Amino acid sequence: MNLPILYSFRRCPYAMRARMALILASKNCELREITLKNKPDEMLKISAKGTVPVLELRNKVLEESLDIISWAMQSHPDNVYIFSAKEKLMSETLIHLFDSKFKYHLDRYKYAFRYKADSFNHQEQCKSILEKLDTKINPSPWIFGKKVSLLDISILPFIRQCKIANPEWFFEQNFKKVIALLNFFEASDLFIHAMKKFDLWDPQNPNGSLFP
Ligand SMILES: N[C@@H](CCC(=O)N[C@@H](CS)C(=O)NCC(=O)O)C(=O)O
């Protein structure tokens, strides 16, 4: 295959948002499903920091999910919501909040033992961020209406992880608009497509899988 190569890990929220952007922009690539415990040398050679997703283009390597999204959006797919300047700023602020503060607390809530953290305290911090988000959005069905936006695809994989940590607790919470949005997201063709399973990439048999 002579396509961009995407190193991906199905369950990684950063890789999920990159895959969704590639689907929305119909950007074909060769997907190489990896495992974080045994990253292939081929990936580490082009991206020493060892995180997924990585997109290898003909002339450059994109090592950040948000850069992969920007690259995919260069073709301005008309199935993606176009932000006003104000919405763009709000979205960027929220994406940053989820990538930094929310992810920080989410990791310590989910893996309290590993981080020697107080799970309850970090669950409360996640809750507070989701409650604030709930006051800012009015999903119908996506955050900005009928079209999915980069804000939806960027933050929902993390909100989903928060749900997975304890679904019973999650669904009892008061952030009902966030819950409705997540339910819609998880049932969407876009998300289902992005979560398609691929065999682990085998460097001995180097052709990956065609994606999307
Ligand atoms: N800022 C990076 C973060 C990517 C990231 O942290 N991915 C995780 C998996 S979800 C990873 O690859 N971690 C490396 C490891 O666990 O060894 C991005 O947005 O692409």
Structure, explained:
α1 links the parallel β1 and β2. The protein folds into 2 domains: 92 residues, 3-Layer(aba) Sandwich (Glutaredoxin), CATH 3.40.30.10; 107 residues, Glutathione S-transferase Yfyf (Class Pi), Chain A, domain 2 (Up-down Bundle), CATH 1.20.1050.10. The two termini are 14 Å apart. The protein has 212 residues and is an alpha+beta fold. The protein has 10 helices and 5 strands. Strands 4-3-1-2-5 form a 5-stranded mixed beta sheet.
Write a compact overview of the structure shown:
This protein has 10 helices and 5 strands. The chain has 212 residues and is of the alpha+beta class.
Search tags:
binds glutathione; 54% helix; Glutaredoxin; 5-stranded mixed beta sheet; 212 residues; alpha+beta; Glutathione S-transferase Yfyf (Class Pi), Chain A, domain 2
Task: Set out the fold topology.
Blueprint: E1 5-8, H1 13-24, E2 29-33, H2 41-46, E3 54-56, E4 61-62, H3 65-73, H4 85-110, H5 112-115, H6 119-136, H7 150-165, H8 167-172, H9 176-187, H10 189-194, E5 209-211
Parallel strand pairs: 1-2
Antiparallel strand pairs: 1-3, 2-5, 3-4
The structure holds glutathione.
